[in-house]
Amino acid sequence: MTINEAYELICTRVQEALESQGYSKLSVSNAEDNEIVSLYANDATAYSIIYYTEKKLMVLESCAMTDEGPDNEWRSLATWMFDPETNDKKDANSIANDFISTVSAPVRQKAQRAQKKKKRDDDGNVDPVFLFKRLAAVLPDLMDEIFNEEDCYSPFRSATFAKASVVPKVNELLSSGNKQQIEKLGGILNAQYKNGDMDCRSIITIVILNGIEGGQNEERMNSALSEELAKAWKHARHYRGKNVKPEKQKKPSKFKQYAQNLNETR
Question: Residue 195: phi, psi to the nearest 5?
């Protein structure tokens, strides 16, 4: 799959999601020879999808709109590696799914807030699934596991998923000693803890951080955490070893069961 094909696939799918929210595609010329850029905006917000050919990075960014256009105070919302020599259409669709989830999050959050009559001032609106999708930027193969969980279980088994899929990858990353990636992991956890709802915060402290193994790994992780999250983790250590109530499995549809049986007989 060429990079142009992958980029077109991602942009087309994201554009469909944005158009349903009142966004339009704007004309924009590529700022650099090593960049591919698309721009979408409404009266308040602009989104940009950029592919950096040298770094092989696919990035979703956002900024505010003014009467003159984007204010150019861009902030990165999601970053993915995409190498056309090793990645394929499945990977491009995974990136598109994540970008769509990101640009749709403000709409979901607005609806959720409208349904709540009261909300604590310190209770954020980021849920565990949003957290997991952010973590996929530094934890390999996590996005595929997220899609599989969403497909097989309802509601999403956040605690179980974090323990089975996230914790082992976090320990592997910490054991590697890759300071840059560990700092990036810490940055994601800090931001999602600050903006997360109570479920999200509990997943971060009681499941993910408490699941870190080894004193050296704990030191590496602690050094990348904000003062707020480091303090919360200290208190959460009292809950180590506590059992989490298992979530119920959703029964597979007849079609999925048939497909599974068919694959097993091949």
Answer: -100, 0
Question: Alpha-carbon distance 247 to 265, whole Å?
Answer: 30
- The three-point CA angle 91-92-94 to 5° equals 65
First to last CA, the chain: 28
Q: How far apart are CA 147 and CA 12, in angstroms?
A: 20
| Predicted confidence (pLDDT) per residue in 90-123, tens digit | 999 999 999 998 888 765 555 555 454 444 444 5
Element (H, E) at 88: none
3-state secondary structure of 29: coil
Q: Report the alpha-carbon distance of residue 111 to residue 258 in Å, rounded.
A: 36
pLDDT digits 0-9 by tens, 159-195? 999 999 999 999 999 999 999 999 999 999 999 999 8
d(CA 264, CA 266): 6
**How many Cα atoms sit within 13 Å of 2 on the Cβ side?**
3
Angle between helix 3-19 and 89-115 (nearest 10):
20
